[in-house]
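In pairs, describe these two lines:
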Amino acid sequence: MVSVQIFGLKNSSATRAAERFFKERRIPIHWVDLKQKPMAPAEIKRFTDKFGLPPLLDTEGKAYVDAGLKYIRLPDPELLRKIEQNPALLRLPLIRCGKLVAVGQDESAWKAMLEQ
């Protein structure tokens, strides 16, 4: 049986949409609230290996602007530390299903996860 792991924030509409998508299809979900438990560095690496760091950032979000990241360029290790401190910088949700990963509200990627 396929199951997914969703990393997100309860107040994120995209995270809630992903949760609803998988629940409607009766797929077991392992939910990780990033406010309660930050992502492990190895877990972040899984996503950065696939997408790189820039696509994981919510460059239009309030947290990104408030952190001053719109105007400064940080080295990746420092940017990763900021992400660990403030998960709202991420484009949520981050979803893992086996070896497949998806970033943001991407129903086509979610459907592909169900077909594996």
About this structure: The chain is about 40% helix and 15% strand.
